[in-house]
Amino acid sequence: MVEIIKPFAEWCSAIIEAFGIGIIAAFAVYSIVMSIVRLLKRRQINTIIKEGRQNLGRGLLAGLEFLVASDIIHTVAVNLTFETIGVLSIIVLIRTFLSFTLELELTGHVALAKRKKILSNQGSMPVELE
């Protein structure tokens, strides 16, 4: 059974990793092309840079999610040792930090600390997070 699952997991991991890389590359090209189009339309340079960075950041966030999924599949299904689990932990930690900082850069605030009203644990009193 392991002989069947291991090659399948390797292929799945490789396909998901390629998809993540493709997303990052596609968003990079899209960001560059759209920046050039906006530049030709004589938009303000600050707006062009901001929108280009946001497009690229969104692509990086999406691509990183697929790369993390690929690493998890590869580590758990293909090569499960304490060393690979440690390496996976470090990779996931670094990529999570990158995702966190990219989200902060794109939106200007932390996703969990958005100012919005939610119901408290009692379910009746609205509370505002800061």
Walk me through what this model shows.
It holds the Pfam family DUF1622. Keywords: Membrane, Transmembrane, Transmembrane helix. There is one protein chain. This protein is mostly helical and 130 residues long. It has 3 helices and 2 strands. The chain has a two-stranded antiparallel sheet. A hairpin with a 6-residue loop joins strand 1 and strand 2. About 5% of the residues have low confidence.
Keywords summarizing the entry:
single chain, transmembrane helix, 2 strands, mainly alpha, two-stranded antiparallel ribbon, DUF1622, membrane, transmembrane, DUF1622 domain-containing protein, 130 residues
Secondary structure layout plus pairing:
Layout: H1 2-40, H2 45-78, H3 82-107, E1 117-119, E2 126-128
Antiparallel strand pairs: 1-2
Helix pairs in contact: 1-2, 2-3
Organism: Nostoc cf. commune SO-36
Pfam family, one: DUF1622
Protein name: DUF1622 domain-containing protein
Short description:
The protein has 130 residues and is mainly alpha-helical.
Order of helices and strands: HHHEE
Q: Strand tally, please?
A: 2
Number of domains: 1
Spatially, the strands of the biggest sheet line up as 1-2
Helix content: over 70%
Measured between the Cα atoms of the first and last residue, the distance is 51 Å
The tally of helices reads 3
Q: What general form does the structure show?
A: elongated
Question: Which ranges are low-confidence, i.e. pLDDT below 50, for 5 or more consecutive residues?
Answer: 117-122
Quaternary state, please? Answer: single chain
Strand content: under 5%
**Main beta sheet strand tally, sense and closure:** 2 strands, antiparallel
